[in-house]
Write a structure and sequence with these properties.
Elements (H helix, E strand, L loop, with lengths): L1 E3 L3 H9 L4 E7 L3 E6 L5 E5 L8 H20 L4 E7 L4 E6 L5 E5 L2 E6 L1
Antiparallel strand pairs: 1-8, 2-3, 3-4, 4-8, 5-6, 6-7
């Protein structure tokens, strides 16, 4: 199994087949796992660690991550990736059931390929 430390693979999956990206794991305070059911790639998003200089931004991410976890647990098939912006290290999720959006800053993109 190879691991690619780049957001390019997630960006490609999102561009080519966005409806195949399913959120499979939300593990606060830092991890989100997304599976592409089309190409079977597993994308792992690691959020930035809390630091003194950016606690306010990190707090927003942590709150969104907990709310995202609740949506994934309540209605997993309704949560989709709605934006991937690797230049800004940002990924956004949207829940179709409750119409909430969750914007997360990403410190590390990893793609696990079989």
């Amino acid at each position: 199994m190879s691991v690619h430390k780049s957001g390019a693979f997630l960006q490609q999956c999102f561009s080519v087949h966005p409806l195949c990206l399913n959120v499979k794991l939300v593990s606060p305070p830092q991890i989100v796992g997304v599976l592409c059911t089309n190409c079977q790639m597993r994308h792992r998003l690691t959020l930035p660690e809390a630091s003194g200089s950016s606690e306010e931004t990190i707090g927003i991410d942590r709150h969104d991550l907990v709310r995202l976890q609740e949506c994934v647990q309540s209605h997993p098939k309704e949560v989709r990736v709605s934006l991937v912006h690797i230049e800004q290290s940002a990924v956004e999720f949207r829940c179709g059931s409750c119409h909430c959006s969750y914007a997360l800053n990403v410190a590390l993109f990893e793609t696990h390929q079989s």
